[in-house]
Amino acid sequence: MTMVECEGTGMYSDHEKEHMSTKYPFADAYRVVKLEILTDEKNVQKIVQLIRQSGRTGYSGDGMIILSPVDEVYKVRTDEVGFSIV
To answer: How high is the pLDDT of residue 25?
Structure first.
């Protein structure tokens, strides 16, 4: 798992106000945390459910979960290949 502190723009603010990010992309940036988790298929739904349950506040900005397949894993230092090295 990797956790990265980021700044991003989006529809986090009050939609009744003018959203500055449409004019000045990072003038109205918000601090967010991005989690990257690499796991095998058997754990995906467990992890998704855990994040959805523990990460939900009910307010705008709770985030998104995006699933993406990984075709192969290569370890640069040792030249190992495959998901067993994760």
So the answer is: 55
